[in-house]
Design goal:
This protein is about 35% helix and about 15% strand. By secondary structure, it is α/β, with parallel strands linked by helices.
């Protein structure tokens, strides 16, 4: 059998999973470029159409047939439309699915599998790696980190300093806050309270990033991060205190802020999908404030940016784009040097000047990780973040707009030619597709 550790060339497969980010395609580009740097060990580079579902359905795209121009545009193409993503959850009970994945890998001589995603994806990658070993299949499985939530890792930041996607989501909110401030200043005589909802089910990293739009703390801004456990009543009291002081207030709440039931709906991973739920935290906060009275005349209004914050490239961080690409290239180097079962990771080099360095961590460690805002980075009243958070996050949003190509006044995104290669396995219906 061909061997990945010095024998015949093997093919590589890349797939994406979970919610997208403004820089996820930069990681896709990085994987492709990284694989091409090893022409003596890697043959064809394939992409699975819509993540692990594409592997199960044997829907694979030959990236080597894509025009060089389109591959070069991936770095500034947002979201996951280039090769698709999915929320197909794989559990230990789905032995048929895992077996199918390995069978598809064998049929197409896949020696290297690169999976771009969060902790659920790294759990899947770890299970595929273990199953391949059990079956004697020589398959190197390597993870590439991705999530705008920045909730992968540990409180000491030894697993990963930050995740690709977070810097761009943080920049989106920093810029948004600048603009919301101007609106609130102008409309405060009739709309004194502006309520916005940021993504983040159980952690407040994105909500916290709102402070980056006002590091000098001049805005009447209150942040309600999941870690602080404020209630509607305490929020109402805090907002009215601010209104008595400045006549206006800007409120950012986590989507998971406890407002009671919101008619929750769940995605394929079992997570609450707030954008599909009956109502949302921002609307319930607005309703509560208006029903219980404001300390000044006028009313509260609410806005929910929704998936825009995770999928637009106009506000992407140049630092984030570069790091997403580089951590993916490093994943290929890890696969070549260290074999299966690792995720490429970003750490922060020592010193007062920000600089990223790239390392690796075991997939199993990442799969079981969950990180929240450190308590020391939250102010005592639970309404803001400290300067330590600002110093941590500010370098990640970079300086300046991304250099995104345009045509006829519109952004020019990568448009790949999605044609599947010939199938070699029997037709298969994934376990979760069966009724």
């Amino acid at each position: 059998m061909p061997c990945y550790n010095g024998g015949m060339k093997r093919n590589a497969l890349v797939a994406q999973s979970g919610g997208p980010s403004p820089v996820i395609n930069a990681s896709l580009q990085g994987v492709i470029e990284g694989c091409r740097a090893f022409p003596d060990r890697i043959g064809n580079v394939y992409a699975a159409w819509h993540g692990i579902e594409g592997v199960l359905l044997e829907e694979l795209v030959d990236m080597g047939r894509q025009p060089a121009r389109e591959i070069s545009l991936l770095g500034t193409t947002p979201a996951a439309g280039a090769i698709g993503t999915c929320r197909y959850k794989l559990t230990g009970e789905q032995a048929e699915d895992f077996g199918r994945i390995v069978d598809v890998m064998k049929a197409h001589d896949i020696g290297y599998f690169f999976y771009i995603g969060g902790n659920d994806s790294m759990d899947t990658a770890a299970k595929v790696s273990a199953l391949a070993r059990e079956r004697g299949v020589e398959l190197v499985v390597t993870g590439v980190p991705k999530t705008i939530d920045n909730d992968i890792g540990d409180s000491e930041f030894t697993i990963i300093d930050h995740t690709p996607g977070y810097g761009s989501a943080a920049r989106y909110w920093a810029l948004l806050m600048q603009n919301v401030e101007e609106e609130n200043r102008g409309m405060c005589v009739s709309e004194p309270v502006a309520v916005l909802q940021a993504m983040g089910r159980k952690s407040g990293w994105i909500t916290a990033a709102s402070r980056l739009g006002d590091p000098e703390r001049r805005m009447p801004l209150q942040l309600y991060m999941a870690e602080t456990h404020h209630t509607l009543q305490s929020l109402h009291d805090n907002v009215n205190a601010q209104l008595r002081k400045s006549g206006r207030c800007i409120v950012v709440v986590n989507e998971g802020f406890d407002v009671g039931g919101v008619g929750e709906r769940h995605d394929g991973f079992g997570h609450v999908e707030y954008g599909a739920s009956r109502t949302n935290a921002a609307q319930e906060v607005v309703n509560y404030l208006n029903a219980n009275g404001l300390a000044v005349r006028g009313q509260a209004t609410g806005q929910v940016p929704g998936v825009i914050q995770r999928s637009v490239s106009m506000c992407a961080s140049r630092v984030d784009i570069a790091e997403a690409r580089e951590v993916a290239r490093h994943a290929v180097e890890v696969a070549m040097k260290d074999g299966t079962g690792w995720m490429s990771t970003i750490l922060r080099a020592p010193g007062s000047t920000y600089k990223a360095r790239y390392d690796k961590v075991k997939l199993e460690i990442v799969a079981n990780s969950e990180r929240f805002l450190p308590p020391s980075w939250i102010t005592k009243d639970g309404l803001d973040v400290t300067d330590d958070f600002v110093r941590y996050a500010q370098p990640l949003i970079g300086d300046g707009d991304p250099e995104a190509p345009t045509e006829n006044g519109l952004q020019r995104f990568a448009r790949l030619d999605i044609q599947f290669i010939g199938k070699k396995c029997p037709q298969y219906v994934p376990v979760r597709f069966r009724k």
